[in-house]
Amino acid sequence: MKKHALRDWGPRLAVLAVAVALWEYFLSRSQNFLLPTFSHIATGLFHLIFFEPRFWEALYISNQALIFGYATAVMIGVPLGLIAARLPWMDRFLNPYFAVLLVMPVAPLIPIVIIALGLGLAARVFIVVSFALVFITINTRAGVRSIEPTLIEMAKSFGAKETQIWRRIIVPGALPAIFAGLRIGLGRAITGMVMVELLLVASGLGRLLLEFSGRMQSDMVFATVLAVIIEALALLSAMQFLERKIAPWAPNISIG
To answer: Cys-Cys crosslink for 81: which of 117, 137, 147, 237, Cβ 3.0 to 4.6 Å?
Structure first.
């Protein structure tokens, strides 16, 4: 375990140390007084977490949209991907919409969503779902399609029912790709959560970022962004831990 942890975290910490050193060297050579040093960012993060009650209130508001939106995307995306992969006619029906959602930028649609749903929680949840849904669905569909067809044919030849095929072959075989989609979708959901708050709905963490940037508090801006990154990494690590518990036999094909 110690060797495994050292192998994983050694290069990561080395890259972080090099990035911090380059950051400090660049600031020492430049005349830009707006960019904070890493020590100022770390101090700002400490102040944000322990001495800024508005941060926790903003985090709670932002995570409401994240939790509801991501849960909705999972409940819709995973079954939709499974059905699309298993039923050819459903796949032909949904494929054009998947292609459109993949190439269509979501950010320009935010004003339309705000006009339709207002400035409340519903609009922010819808944006989070829009960011995450297509990636969860497509990865789920790809996971089912990666299963060897001969396994399903062999199961049918031995008299397996459709429910047994789903339970014993399709779902276990597609789990690595499903979790990959869940993790990618989670990252996209966090992006949508912050983006909608920055562009139109000044609430939560987006509101804090706008306030700090308006006051030229660049150290607090970077500290808030760093807090969002830390939360995202923690959630992705939790997803990876859940994947190892649910599907310990599966190879890790997901990001992170």
So the answer is: 137
Full-model pTM? 0.84
Give Cα 125 distance to the centre of its chain. Answer: 14
Distance from C-alpha of 205 to C-alpha of 48, rounded to nearest angstrom: 12
Total H helices, total E strands in the chain? 11, 0
- Residue 213, exposed/middle/buried by CB under 10 A (0-12, 13-18, 19+)? middle
Backbone angles phi, psi at 203, to 5 degrees: -145, 160
Residue 201 near residue 123, CB atoms below 8 Å = yes
Give me the amino acid identity at 29: R
Query: Which residue, among 250, 232, 233, 234, has the nearest Cα to 178 in the 3D structure?
Result: 250
Which residues, in sequence order, are CB contacts of 105 under 8 Å at separation 6+? none
The low-confidence residues of the chain, meaning pLDDT below 50, are: 254-256
Main-chain phi, psi angles of 205, to 5 degrees: -65, -35
Listed residue (200, 203, 181) closest to 66, CA to CA: 203
Tally the residues of the chain.
256
